[in-house]
Amino acid sequence: MLTTFARELLVDLALALALLMIILLALSGIGLPLTAQTTFDQEIGLHSSLKVGQSFVAEADSLYRLDLLLARRGPNSQPVVLHLQAAPAPASDEVTVEINASLLEDLSSPIRRPHVYRPFTFSPLSGSAGKKFLFYVESPLSTAENPVLVEYQSQDAYPEGEGYTNSAALSGDLAFKAYYAGAGPVPTAALLLTRLTEQRPFPLSENAFYVIAACTCLTLVVRLVRTLCSPLLN
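Given the sequence above, the corresponding structure tokens read:
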């Protein structure tokens, strides 16, 4: 038979797992970027007739948001327009979203946030899972003196897609994140583990390390809360 300590430990573990599931459900409701290319080492000045884009494969249904690593250098209050189309042979825009360049971080300012992604949100696209899309941004009223800056990686960092400038291929990929509505706790957990383990030394590169660490920490939290609350319940 189990001892009292063992029974209480199992209860704490069960409560910790339930708490972990609640946290994952909350995170999946907020939305996490299941598709992302976040490395960058170059920038393109977006102005006049220049269009800069990227193709990608949607990894889940209900694509509803694209984040791009954009900035400006100096005053700029011109429109920045994102177009999202089906690939590889786009016929028309599925989504068009416009923001103002004044919302972007000014790299010439001494007080600024570094490397800020700017979200473009739209109504969720049903049936997006597994489909290839192409997005591009333009700011035709911006000038060469005050362009919109688009960050990208100069080498192929996202094999599932390609970067573009106008209709020419770009030797690299834009920095971007794609979000999906209601991805669910399992894809959310898989994404978190992928982000935590990539390019880490052992044992930080192992999924089991973070699962055990999360369960241990949450079990200790549950045990602490139960210990503190037990006098109030008796």
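The domain at 33-181 is CATH 2.60.120 (Jelly Rolls). Try to locate this feature in the token string yourself.
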